[in-house]
Amino acid sequence: MKWKVFWAFVKKEFYHITRDKRTLLILFGMPIAQVLIFGFVISTDFKNASIDFLNHANDETSFELIEQIQSSENFKIGRILYADHELEKGFKDGTSKLVMVIPEDFSKDFYNRNPIEIQILTDGSDPNNAVTLTQYITSIVGSFQQQKLKIPENPQQINIETKLLYNPKSISAYNFIPGTIALILMIISAMLTSLTIAREKETGTIEILLVSPLSPLLIILGKVAPYALLSFIDAILILVLGFFVFEVPVRGSLILLLFCCLIYVITSLTIGTLISAVSKTQQDAMMRSLMGLMMPSMILSGFIFPLTSMPFILQVLGHIIPTTYFIEILKGIMLRGVGLEIVWFPLFVLFLMILFFLFFTWKNFKTRLQ
Amino acid sequence: MEAIIVENISKNYKDIQALKEVSFQVKEGEIFGLIGPDGAGKSTLFRILTTLLLPDSGKGFVAGHPIVEEFKSIRKKVGYMPGKFSLYQDLSVEENLSFFATIFGTTIEENYDLIKDIYEQIEPFKKRLAGKLSGGMKQKLALCCALIHKPEVLFLDEPTTGVDVVSRQEFWEMLAVLKQKGISILVSTPYMEEAILCDRIALILNGEILNIDTPNQMIQNFDKTIYAIKCNRLYDLIHYLRTQDYTESCLPFGENLHLVTKEKVEIEKLKKEIITQGFEQVEIEKITPTIEDVFLHLGQEKKEDAN
Ligand SMILES: Nc1ncnc2c1ncn2[C@@H]1O[C@H](COP(=O)(O)OP(=O)(O)OP(=O)(O)O)[C@@H](O)[C@H]1O
Ligand SMILES: [Mg+2]
Known about the structure:
The structure holds two protein chains of two kinds. By secondary structure, chain A is α/β, with parallel strands linked by helices. Helix content of chain A is 66%, strand content 9%. Chain A folds into two domains: 49-165, abc type-2 transporter like domain (abc type-2 transporter like fold); 173-369, no CATH class. Chain A has a five-stranded mixed sheet. In chain A, helix 7 (173-203) packs antiparallel against helix 9 (216-246) and helix 9 (216-246) packs across helix 10 (254-278). Chain A is elongated. The model of chain A is unreliable at 166-171 (pLDDT under 50). Helices cover 35% and strands 28% of the residues of chain B. In chain B, the strands form three sheets. Chain B has a six-stranded mixed sheet, sandwiched between helices. Classes of the chains: A alpha/beta, B alpha/beta. The A-B interface holds A 1, 4-5, 8-9, 11-12, 15-16, 19-20, 203-205, 207-214, 367-370 and B 47, 50-54, 71-72, 75-76, 78, 80, 82-84, 86-91, 95, 98-100, 102-105, 145-146. The structure holds adenosine-5'-triphosphate and magnesium ion. The site of magnesium ion (MG) has 5 residues of chain B, from helix 1.
């Protein structure tokens, strides 16, 4: 009986979703568009980026390294510089993307396996490119080392020191993909659920549902379950796009990552139901989820602005937003490849939030109208 | 046993008093009409009786259960059709009906005999989305949905609002059939002419019950004489008549005015008097009162009492 009712709700909700263009658009158009627009913005000019060299060594090995960099299709050699004061010249007139500074005695130190400092300067006003290009350089230097010395890559020997000029607090592609996943899951889970429940209030159908012998919990579960599933599909969609379009890896456990996504989706859904419990109309629910949820999640989660550089009060606010914890988890698992031993804490916080919001939803979603 | 008992129910929304000490009873197998204009408090009372809202004070019983304490039992026994036909506009006729059947723990087939007559009329459109139906068809579908679990008591909140005249007619015929099957019905309407189709009615205005009776009795008890008067300057005439001693009440009524007098007056004398006051094209006719006259008159009295 319970299952039959639950299933009837799920079916009904799928009809609502598939028959409404706006919902479909938010559900599938938005994640794809957001990720691709972002992709378009950052993936400009990865080919033949102009690189300047300030070569203090001027020896055999340094020339080989420059040759190697040039032979990759990502870079072409711009100017050869002779003095420190020329370093920013290429950035200022917009002709170069990077400058590499090779230290004296490069050959000697290289074959004696002494530590070497190679300095890379990048144009931080174009941070996404800058970070990506730096990664390319790093990997080229790595493989150069491997070829020449016939040893496995040894990141300890050549230290590539990067300086992001003009934008010391960098936003990178690697920052962006986890942030986008977090935000989109929040939008879909919280906003769409609050909208769908508010819609039942607006059309008055909620009155019939409440007058039925169903328990409110079953009503909520029946309405929310389809969105949980779809959000989860979206999470996978973005991960796949991130991986294939931007080569954002998942270094840690995929299972753990998906599990965390699920927990975060549930957190957002409980927030969504809470929002709908206090909103009378769809417009109301929309405003509340945009202003009360999206804006703080975007600004205070460390997605765009690093939390550490914010005033204390905003940092505190940032730490009561689930997105903050989820981005932390995503970065940990995707980029640093860490496991549960590191992400257990933010995950635990998300669990607590679920309990907290469920409690309030339970209190607010009454068996009656008021 | 009474199907519905309402005892001194009051309800406030912040500063609006929506219901003031409302009391009435609906007998089993009766069609009871709640007649009142917009904002009278009809929907509020329906929501209280269907256990969606709590009253501030007073008691209520539906199908023998107290509305606050045993709301769960009531929810199994009542059918409720909220105002504005609350259906899923983006679900088809069939999908709506089977959804509501499922949540009430039944199937369309199980109780088909009860809705058969009504459902057959909309069955040709069963694949059509509810949002694309005409008002009359929406109304029938909503009624089917409210009936699908064989309720003992049916609550219909303004079921005929926004529906064409023919469908309204048909709808009342359907209610008569349901009554035959032993279902007690509480129905609200802002249309006074529908009052006559109910077994008993309560007139409600600004949250207060003005009168409760059978429609015929209510008209009979209204022992005042009513004149319908037409003329060229209706508004001025109302002002004039209201200052006269013989006038009990005088209210606009479509393109006429309806005059209720304290004692009998002669039509010819009245006509002459009015013409001497400079009104033209005067026509006077003595009429039998309608429910609307009763309503307007009682409403007017209430207003005067308040002042
Ligand atoms: N949720 C609410 N909050 C505040 N006031 C309300 C609320 N619901 C109704 N009211 C007010 O209570 C009064 C009675 O409203 P109600 O909806 O019961 O009237 P009604 O007879 O059903 O009228 P209608 O024909 O407009 O449906 C009105 O003045 C209305 O404005
Ligand atoms: Mg109403």
